[in-house]
Fold:
Amino acid sequence: MIMKHRDYYLTIADTLLILGQRLSEWCGHGPAIEEDIALSNVALDYIGQATALYKEVSEKAGEGKSEDDYAFLRDAWEFKNLLLVELPKGDYGYTIARQFLFSTWYYHFLEALHNSKDEFLKGFAAKSIKEVKYHFQHSRDWMLRLGAGTEESNSRMQAALNEIWEFTGEMFINSKAELEAIADGTGVDNAKLLDVWQRIVGAVIQEAELTLPSDAWMQKGGKEGKHSEHIGFVLAEMQFLQRAYPGSKW
Structure:
């Protein structure tokens, strides 16, 4: 059985898995116990969503692979995640800035995906958006708290925004797999999400007493398997046990 939109599923799943892995790096290192738990829960939400997508691919693609195979036994060039999510976690402000920019997009992506002609993706969107609404609210609240906080927190948030900004454009560029999914009503046209994302992001950044970075060259390629050097470090840690002890079960 050939799964028509296998790569579309993997584009979503890979982005969620890698971001979940990055957020999990805060477990035990959060600035406060509540935030340690909060970010760990957000990480688990993303990993759980990715697992659901990988499971669907494993059952429908006919490749003889399990959901674990897609997560742990593919090489860097086979991953189709956004470049944004593979960047190192940085300090807490950096993580919050990325989380805010991503979850603002992802929330509206799921809203649009709820209209998919693919029944699995439609159900996936309806379930996942409940979790992502909290992710957005949590990161927005911290953007405001840190941006309008002390001089130190404001400068750190501004530096994070300036560094991350060039990786945000890829969220609104449709890959080949996404264009194919859009064509038959399965996928979401990411370009149509840009206006609402800019409006919300701009309003929060202004309220947080931060400055919207100027438009610049936007990085892209992650969804086509062209990654930064950071992906190798993420995968090396995430995949170590499965590759060292193939087929082991815990």
In short: The two ends are 30 Å apart (CA to CA). The first helix runs from residue 6 to 24.
